[in-house]
Amino acid sequence: MDFSLVKIPENYYAILVARCYCASRPLCYHVIYSVRYVVPAKKPKGKPAPKPLRARHAGRSDSKSKPGTRLQEVLKSAANIFFAKGFHATSIEDVARDVGMLKGSLYYYIRSKEDLLFQLLLAGIEDGDAYIAQHIDLEGEPVQQLERAIRAQIDYIIQNKVPFGLFLHEFDSLSGKRQHKVIAVMSRYNNRFVDLVKRGQQQGKLIEGEPWLIVNGILGMCNWLYRWYDTDHVSDPEQVKQVFLNMLLNGLRKSSPFSGRS
Question: Which of 79, 108, 228, 262 is the most buried (most CB within 10 A)?
């Protein structure tokens, strides 16, 4: 009779098997009894286990105050890889590998790759909307405030080329329900410009035309900065602002050309 110890998963050694040879049967197998004991886990070598991620719903203001959190690291990595490779060509494994985590650790905090993209795009449009809101006064003189809004738009794009470009390129990758949530914020964003144009028109200071059409022209001109703006060729953002404002406001004003003074 022979005995053998069989290893099963999860650090258990389990079945003690007896092999029995009988005269009446050519070969028989009988399980005599089993033993099971836990093998002490070995301490992992190398890097310590990653710190747990901070869930997005914990509050963006809190995560902003601690830019070193693992969630912020994951979001930044995902934004860079999505931007460089494209959303569909990027896998969760790519992001996990880039931040030195296991794939399962990411899935503990996100439901899917699209969930990660949704967080990035929603954060990008919310941050952009807040940035514009901080730089304008909706009760102020409309043309002056429109100038300030355009300046803020240019600054925000130059400072956030990756998240802004990701938003423009990958918005269509979101499912319909999530697109609607992002569109709600995007509409608020655009309406800040639309309201200024409407007021300028009501006061007879800006040319006639559908306000939303004028705003789409302004934002379309500014938004493409993320593709071509390069500090190797244009080192001073003020140069971009001056040229853009001259073209836009001189084209929109009914009289008195834009002076270039903010």
Answer: 79
CA nearest neighbour of 215 among 258, 174, 252, 179: 252
Does domain 67-110 correspond to CATH entry 1.20.1300.10? no
Q: Which long-range contacts (CB under 8 A, 24 or more apart) does 219-223 make?
A: 219/153, 219/190, 219/193, 221/247, 221/248, 222/150, 222/153, 222/154, 222/157, 223/157, 223/164, 223/168
The CATH 1.10.357.10 domain(s) of the chain lie at 119-252
pTM for the predicted model, two decimal places = 0.67
In the chain, which residues fall in CATH 1.10.10.60? 67-110
Measured distance CA(223)–CA(164) in Å, rounded: 8
Among 172, 140, 150, 139, residue whose Cα is nearest residue 223: 150
What CATH number was assigned to the domain covering residues 119-252?
1.10.357.10
Asked which of 29-38, 60-69, 200-209, 221-230 is least confident by mean pLDDT, the reply is 29-38
